[in-house]
Design brief:
The protein is an alpha/beta fold and 472 residues long. Helices cover 35% and strands 16% of the residues.
């Protein structure tokens, strides 16, 4: 490393967020950036730790110490060339990844100030685009064709990897534009959609064909896809939200989180909405579910001008700083306060929802009940028990943000009308490809909802397996 002792004298400096009073009135990205000099200074903090746990924690195996060193020395192009070896889309992960690498940084353990890996990554890729380091690659075609069903992070990664290996790749997307979760699930204030458009243009220039508004079985037959391509990769994500089947669920005013978020993203994109707009302006909003998607509902509701926003979670409140259940270098399960929470939100834990209360078909209130988690035996998981302490909340809008149902494998492959033997031998992330079947699957479609970076890692594995399969 160029300066192995910089961490002793240089503190961690984050770029931070734009002021709340400013960002609350728009959908531009909330995160700011440091200047190039400060960014290089932050890169210098990457110490000669010997065993890089950041690399260990990263699902795609980024070589953080190597490109941090190049960045510190001002070799932006070299740092980009190292970064792109392992990460197909640093402009996405550099903005929305929860930075598993930083949580496992040796400096996170020793002085609680890890290197700003994620922000440095975003700075490198943006410099690469600005300076023209990134140019369309024109691979030599090998005559074989691959279909990718779904254009989320996993599907885009499969397409990018196989295209550069010489395959003619066609990506089928049921929605209006490519991007999947990146475009329709993540708010613009976290990921500007022009960033996605820029990458899609590059991939198109490199020869990848995107067929949008195309549903398998409706706009194109499964047989046609199976007959027309040498391999098919299913990367349709995990889009079935977990429901809350309690009394009053059918009242107007109760929505899935993704109904709200995807509609807002479509509106900002200028796409005509098919359903009545969901507007939180002047309303009392309740978000059920304490994860990132729930946080996104909080931020979007605040930008609508909601009268109040409350977020409840059925689990206990996690500790603020250190959780002995997830010690370093594991990803810590601790209290996370997002930029959306900072903008205004009441957060509560250990609450379950008993019923929705309405009047003339319209939501008016929600009955919640406090719960406690009891571990009856040390070796067993905690069990939830109702306490009988109930409360009625006056609410105008509810967003259900409780995760997604794991996709059923037969349900996935039925879309391609595969026979029984082929269903058994579908390759998940490139594994178990022993029967000669040309159907592969990857990403959230196989694992259930997870991180963008894990979907990308799964896509790279699937692309490698497809390449090996087609090469015999």
């Amino acid at each position: 490393m160029g300066n192995p002792k910089a961490f002793l004298t240089i503190p961690r400096q984050e770029s931070g967020y734009r002021p709340v009073h400013e960002r609350i009135n728009d959908y531009s990205e909330v995160e700011q950036t440091l200047n190039n000099s400060d960014r290089r200074t932050q890169a210098s903090r990457c110490m000669d730790c010997g065993v890089p746990f950041c690399h260990w924690a990263c699902p795609i195996g980024n070589k953080q110490p190597e490109w941090q060193d190049k960045l510190y020395k001002g070799n932006w192009k070299e740092s980009f060339l190292i970064l792109e070896q392992t990460c197909d889309f640093p402009e996405f992960t550099g903005r929305i990844c929860p930075a598993l690498c930083e949580k496992s940084c040796v400096l996170a353990l020793s002085i609680h100030e890890p290197v700003t890996i994620r922000e440095n990554e975003a700075a490198i890729i943006e410099m690469a685009f600005r300076e023209g380091y990134i140019r369309p690659v024109k691979p030599v075609r090998n005559g074989k064709k691959v279909a990718v069903i779904g254009s989320g992070p996993a599907g885009l990664t499969v397409a990018n990897q196989l295209n550069r290996k010489g395959y003619q790749v066609t990506v089928f997307e049921k929605d209006e534009l490519p991007g999947g979760l990146l475009r329709y699930g993540i708010p613009n204030f976290k990921l500007n959609k022009k960033i996605i458009d820029r990458r899609i243009r590059l991939m198109t220039d490199e020869g990848i064909e995107f067929k949008t508004n195309t549903k398998i079985g409706a706009d194109i037959s499964a047989k046609e896809i199976a007959d027309s391509f040498d391999a098919v990769c299913i990367a349709i994500g995990s889009e079935v939200p977990r429901d809350l089947p309690v009394e009053g669920r059918d009242l107007k005013g109760v929505y899935f989180a993704m109904e709200f978020l995807s509609q807002q993203n479509r509106a900002l994109q200028g796409i005509e909405l098919k359903n009545e707009p969901i507007n939180a302006k002047g309303k009392k909003v309740l978000v059920i579910g304490g994860g990132d998607t729930g946080s996104d509902c909080v931020g979007t509701s605040n930008r609508h001008g909601a009268a109040s926003v409350t977020q409840i979670e059925i689990l206990p409140q996690p500790p603020a700083d250190f959780n002995p259940a997830t010690p370093w270098p594991m990803y810590p399960q601790i209290l996370k306060t997002s930029s959306s929470h900072e903008e205004g939100c009441v957060r509560r834990w250990n609450l379950t929802t008993n019923k929705f209360i309405g009047e003339n078909g319209q939501l008016k209130a929600v009955e919640i009940e406090e719960v406690e988690w009891v571990q009856e035996k040390p070796s067993e998981r905690s069990v939830m028990k109702l306490t009988g302490k109930k409360e009625i909340l006056d609410v105008d809008l509810v967003f259900l943000s409780m995760g997604f149902v794991h996709p059923v494998q037969d349900g996935l492959v039925n879309e391609l009308k595969l026979n029984v033997n082929e269903r058994k031998n579908i390759a998940i992330d490139g594994s178990n490809q022993t029967s000669g079947s040309k159907i592969f699957a990857c990403g959230d479609a196989t694992s259930g909802a997870s991180l963008v970076v894990r979907a990308m890692a799964s896509g790279r594995k699937a692309a490698t397996a497809i390449d090996h399969f087609l090469k015999g």
